[in-house]
Amino acid sequence: CEHCAAPAGLKCSRCGRAFYCNAECQSAHWPRHKKACVPARVASMAAAQPAGAAPQPGVQPASETRAVDNPSARSNIAAAITAEGARHGGDPASSTATAPRSYPRVKALSATWVSRPAHADNIALFLHGFGDTEQPFIQLAQRMAIPNTACLVLRGPDTILDLGYAWYPLLDGEGNPILPTPGEQRRARGLSASCARVVAVMDELTAAGWPRSCIILVGFGQGAVVAIDCALSSTMNVAGVAAISGGCYLPECGPDIAKARSWQRRDVPLLVTHGTRTPDPPLAAARTQAEVVRHFMAPGRVVWREYSKGGIAFAGEQEMRDFWAWLAPLLVLPSAAMEAMTKDGTLIEITDGVSLTRIT
After folding, report:
1. For the whole model, what pTM was predicted?
2. With the C-alpha atoms ordered 268, 274, 280, 282, is the resulting torsion angle positive or negative?
3. In this structure, what is the dihedral angle of CA atoms 90, 92, 94, 99, given to the nearest 10 degrees?
4. Which of 21, 73, 290, 348 is the most exposed place for a label (fewest CB within 10 A)?
5. DSSP codes of every residue in 218-229
């Protein structure tokens, strides 16, 4: 163990070179290790069976980190990388090399870069829910450490007193809820304004070398509605949209949602999740909205999942695993490796901190 010198059966999943006996020792050693903790190349990581993320400064380690050991994982992941490299017409290691893209200082919205790899092929935009701030999602993006992916957390443009931020109003000037009655446009106007800003952010990224085809939108609560609306009203397909516990559209925009929101048919992978006790919208309404959105997507593109929860955050290990299983095929390398890891059950549990890879 790098920290206590005891026999070590776990290694840092970020660099694969530091060894520890438990998560607590890894966390304690992080202040010294972080200077040397450089992520390995994708091909090297695949051969070493990577999973999860190393701890980030300021993130408290979980009391327990569990890994599912599978002896066949290493060969499966290596074979997946080789196959992916062949499809790209070259050596698997060289096929992972990507020209560096710039990370612009976003102007259209307040935004925080969480992950800016020297070489990345994907970019994930995180959108929070009503009354929230970007901070919890910065920590979430740090803990997830999506392979080969830059992460940008966006903040809604509307201030909710001193409580947080929003993407569109839910209350009127007197603090009363805005009801989704026929002809009501206040929430829809706010949604349109926020979507315009998010699209402007994507335009800034495109100008910096990030095409829409590598951008993944991950929205929670209100952010889920914004993400779906951006994807279906935009002129270009994004790589995918995850709508977590927020529904798919504003009820007052129906029943002719295509006309109300200028939606067009898209070939975009969409994951829609919802809680059985999430109040806005209720579960039955969320199911109906997902079915409506299904008509705007190419066949087989919409995945619906529901979980026993009442909030908008990920409910636990199963929802996180479902998210990774949906995400893996969308990522440019090492997507094949991630798919192999997910199918084999070798993905490390995503907890509130340290992730370790069990040595086989």
Report:
1. 0.68
2. positive
3. 100
4. 21
5. EEETHHHHHHHH
Contact 81, 339 (CB under 8 A): no
Contact status, residue 170 vs residue 190, Cβ threshold 8 Å? no
Report which of 150, 135, 334 is spatially closest to residue 347, judged by C-alpha positions: 334
Residue type, 71: P
What's at 250, amino acid-wise?
L
Q: Are 280 and 247 in contact (CB under 8 A)?
A: yes
212, 206 contact by CB (below 8 A): yes
H helix or E strand, kind and range, residue 123: strand 122-127
What are the tokens at 231? 């994807």
CA distance 183 to 180: 8
Q: How far apart are CA 220 and CA 167, in angstroms?
A: 11
3-class DSSP state of 206: helix
User: Please, is 31 exposed, middle or buried when counting C-beta atoms within 10 Å of its C-beta (0-12, 13-18, 19+)?
Assistant: exposed
How far apart CA 82 and CA 5 sit, in angstroms, is 37
User: DSSP labels for 20-40?
Assistant: ESSHHHHHHHHHHHTTT-PPP
Residue for token pair 């199918």: 343
Which residues on neighbouring strands pair with residue 306, listed in sequence order? 274
- Which pLDDT tens digit goes with each residue over 89-101? 333 333 333 445 8
> For residue 350, what pLDDT band results from cuts at 50, 70 and 90?
very low
Contacts of 352 (CB under 8 A, 6+ apart): 59, 60, 61, 62, 143
Cβ-count burial of 102 within 10 angstroms (0-12 exposed, 13-18 middle, 19+ buried)? Answer: exposed
Contacts of 288 (CB under 8 A, 6+ apart): none
